[in-house]
Amino acid sequence: MFALSEVLATGLLVATLLCIAANTVEVAAKAVGARFVLRNCAEVGIGREWIRYLAVIEAAGVAGLVLGLLGPRLIGLAAAAGLVSYFVAAVATHIRARVFHNIAYPVAFLCLAVAALWHFARSAG
């Protein structure tokens, strides 16, 4: 029988892997200028010129999560904290712009980033 802590650890690891996958897809969408990215940014008041910078920030977070899984857990912890901050800002931007029809996406990404942060916080110490 599995201990509750083992189930939690497995769930957090899976959520961290999902965070990596979801953000990788999002970075690729930003890199190719996907229509939904351009439309969403326009709706919340972010100019096209910012999209590449947002992609770089998000890609750095993904790279840090991967590195953290491969060894230096503190890098993963820092990357997860960075992604949490990024998606808190994304949710706040949606709220400020009163764009609620698709706010579930940044909220879901925020939840995955929080799970990754929790995963690395449990194992970094």
Automatic annotation (TrEMBL):
<protein>
    <recommendedName>
        <fullName>DoxX protein</fullName>
    </recommendedName>
</protein>
<keyword id="KW-0812">Transmembrane</keyword>
<keyword id="KW-1133">Transmembrane helix</keyword>
<dbReference type="InterPro" id="IPR032808">
    <property type="entry name" value="DoxX"/>
</dbReference>
<dbReference type="Pfam" id="PF13564">
    <property type="entry name" value="DoxX_2"/>
</dbReference>
<keyword id="KW-0472">Membrane</keyword>
<dbReference type="GO" id="GO:0016020">
    <property type="term" value="C:membrane"/>
</dbReference>
<feature type="transmembrane region" description="Helical">
    <location>
        <begin position="77"/>
        <end position="97"/>
    </location>
</feature>
<feature type="transmembrane region" description="Helical">
    <location>
        <begin position="103"/>
        <end position="121"/>
    </location>
</feature>
